[in-house]
Amino acid sequence: MSRGPCAGVGPAYGRSMRDIPPPPTSAAFWRSPLRGLRFTSVLGLVLLAGITVLFVTGLLSYAAYNPDLATVNDKTPDKGILGFYLFSWPTDPRWLYRLTQGVHVTLGVTLIPVLLAKLWSVIPKLFALPPVRSVSHALERLSLLLLVGGGLFEFVTGVLNVQLDYVFPGSFYRLHFYGAWVFFAAFAVHTALKLPLALRNVRAMRHQDAEQSDERADVHDELVAPHPAEPTFSRRGAFWFVGGGALLLFATTVGRSFDGPLRRTALLAPHGGGDPGSGGNAFQINKTAAYAGIDAAETGDEAWRLVLTGRTGTIRLSRAELSRLPLHTAELPIACVEGWSTSDQEWRGVRLRDLAALVGHDEPVDVFVASLQRHGAFRHAALRSNQVADPRSLLALYVNGAELSPDHGYPARIIVPAAPGVLNTKWVARLTFGKL
Ligand SMILES: Nc1nc2c(c(=O)[nH]1)N[C@H]1C(S)=C(S)[C@@H](COP(=O)(O)O)O[C@H]1N2
Ligand SMILES: [Mo]
Q1: In the structure, which protein residues have their CB atom closer than 6 angstroms to any atom of ligand 1?
Q2: Residue 372 CA, closest ligand 1 atom number
Q3: Rounded Cα distance, 340 and 258, in Å
Q4: Mapped to the 3 state alphabet, what secondary structure does 62-108 carry?
Q5: What local confidence, expressed as pLDDT, does residue 5 receive?
Q6: Which of 35, 233, 323, 428 is the most exposed, fewest CB within 10 Å of its CB?
Q7: Are strands 394-399 and 345-351 parallel, antiparallel or unpaired?
Q8: Burial of 168 (0-12, 13-18, 19+ CB in 10 A)
Q9: Residue to mutate, 424, 427, 430, 431, ligand 1, most ligand atoms under 8 Å from C-beta
Q10: Maximum CA extent, the chain
């Protein structure tokens, strides 16, 4: 009997070679009995539907900024053909952005458990050896890198933005925009390659459930563990677990789109800077006057003048003069890119198109809006002529029967139907009408 260097070690410790845990590169390392093409296929189909909606509502959110108004709105000047579909964002229905962006953010948060479960379900493939088997395998892995990396990147930047209030100063917009295109390109390739398989698996699963036959009859399934551990819960239980997590996130997020007690259920929502208090101004505040560095001295009746510029020159109006112009009322919500929104508030002020007419523009015209704020990305904005022309687009002086509060933009703010909140500039100082 020959004795090799290791001979006897196993038996001496009462273990055989088979007890040494396999490395993650071996299929045997992955032992969850839940993994399998069918589990992955169901999650994949949910993500296919969900991520498609995220992509479409994301593109709409981009369009809603009117980024082709290069003056100030365009945060992606290198967008090139990626801006191919841009159109003038409509003003109807007035809750349009409230809906599209509410869906974008709430659905994105809700899908997090599904995304994580899907990644978990295919993780053995990440470690599989050899890393590259052929040219087509190399391309497939590269597309998966873009898919997984892009997906995680979009979800992480999105969540950081809605929860932590722009941790990447000024660049979130760009990162999330270009990231979306990379992610979605990889997602489209992946869908084209895997959709037929996923559909086949789900159909087979339904068939099998109907026949009450053995759940683990999967054959030719590279995701199934070759040496599965004892199940601790069923595949159905796992779906309930993932679905329950998604439901919990949904329930703690969706309230951000509503006022009153429902907003308080939105644990996962930005809570705004200021206390809205009571009365007409008692609704969500994004940036407070203090945060924006607005000094009460510059908003007082003595100091503040609205500077209007157009074809016929420049005029200055005090707040008293403004409030003697024809005032109009519009019921409009505020809908922020962060996904929160308010229900309709009753705004009262001067129509933007009337102000345009005062400086010589009777035809529809764009406007550049500047606020008293000296720093910050949202201190100015541009609006399209269709937005200026809408009779509900106001330079508001009052809200819900009260003077605007300092935090909601006193002495005057913009409010435009269906536009993202960021275009509703507060503490307005100058309006410059003309082609932008
Ligand atoms: N000057 C100025 N206007 C601004 C902002 C700002 O930071 N500065 N924030 C914008 C954003 S992002 C939103 S969502 C709305 C919020 O309005 P509210 O605080 O009155 O609810 O104001 C917009 N107007
Ligand atoms: Mo916003």
Answers
A1: 284-287, 292, 334, 336, 371, 373, 376, 378-379, 408, 421-422, 424-427
A2: 1
A3: 8
A4: HHHCCCCCCCCCCCCCCCHHHHCCCCCCCCCCCCHHHHHHHHHHHHH
A5: 44
A6: 233
A7: antiparallel
A8: middle
A9: 424
A10: 110
pLDDT at 415: 98
Q: Give the separation between CA 66 and CA 383, rounded to whole angstroms.
A: 8
| Distance of CA 58 from the midpoint of ligand 2 (Å) | 15
**Residue 93 vs residue 215, higher pLDDT:** 93
DSSP state letters, 210-223: HHT--TT---S-TT
Q: Per residue in 413-433, pLDDT tens?
A: 999 999 999 999 999 999 999
Query: What pTM was computed for the model?
Result: 0.91
List Cβ neighbours of 226 (8 Å cut-off, separation of 6 or more).
27, 28
Q: Which ligand 1 atom is at minimum distance from the Cα of 288?
A: 19
Q: CA 413 to CA 428: how far, in whole Å?
A: 6
How far, in Å, from the CA of 150 to the mean position of ligand 2?
25
**Is the CB of residue 36 less than 8 Å from the CB of residue 231?**
no
Q: Residue 278 — pLDDT band, cuts 50, 70, 90?
A: confident
d(CA 299, CA 316): 14
Amino acid at 167: V
Closest-lying ligand 1 atom to the alpha carbon of residue 409: 20
Q: What is the DSSP string of 354-389?
A: HHHHHTT--S---EEEEES--SSTTSEEEE-HHHHH
Residue type present at position 196: P
CB 189 within 8 A of CB 143: yes
**Nearest residue to 257 (alpha-carbon basis) of 342, 161, 333, 334:** 342
DSSP letters of 330-349?
EEE--B-TTS-B---EEEEE
Which pair of structure tokens corresponds to residue 359? 């400086």
Asked whether the predicted pLDDT for residue 108 surpasses 50, the reply is yes
Beta carbons within 8 Å of 218's beta carbon, 6+ residues apart: 36, 37, 38, 224
User: Hey, what amino acid is at 181?
Assistant: W
Does residue 12 surpass a pLDDT of 50? no
Could you tell me the distance, in angstroms and rounded to a whole number, from the CA of residue 420 to the centre of ligand 1? 10
